[in-house]
Design brief:
mainly alpha
Length: 229
Amino acid sequence: MANLRNLPLSYRPVQRLIALFAGLCLYGAGMSAMIAARLGLDPWDVFHQGLQKLTGIRFGWIVIGVGAVVLLAWIPLRQRPGIGTISNVIVIGLAVNVVSDVLPTPHNLAVRWAYAIGGILAVGVASGLYIGTRLGAGPRDGLMTGVVAKYAGRKFASIRVIRTSIEVTVLAIGFLLGGQVGWVTLIFAVTIGPLVHVLIPLLTFAGPPPSVETPAIAASDVLVASPAP
């Protein structure tokens, strides 16, 4: 796996910012495609959709609001947000709203499946783009790595256990609130990890010589191969 330690913004800022915002916008577009497909969503988006049905607030605003609340949980975990973290909170939700306004709603089942598969692929590529910029973890990934770091040494404090616990929890709450769980939920769960495992090394900025890189690795600098926005 590629080195995902955060890099200073001063290193190749234009190229990395372009990749960051392209990735975040593509991520939002992929989410919009899966929403339009109506065949199921990933765990966090089931949660977002459940909150949308409960409150009547637009999906993108829910994504932004949840991201902001999750980011507040970084404070007791002593996580360090980067520009990529803050951008993640704002841009993905805006992109979802914009794309949802212009994306036609499919009715043919084959087209719906094309939307769903295209959405998963878009999220995979988008994850490689924005994670590969090494400008900071997304708020949900940072929550996971922060909990792992805080409780390091305890039996339950592994990425696998913490991530699974968080995603099962938000999936269950979202489902109870009316979020859509379907075949795409399962397909996303089993394919997104392998997708980003292949794409992140291809899209990650290699960075300057080691002496120029950030010397310490914080928990928020470590990302896993199954991203959340």
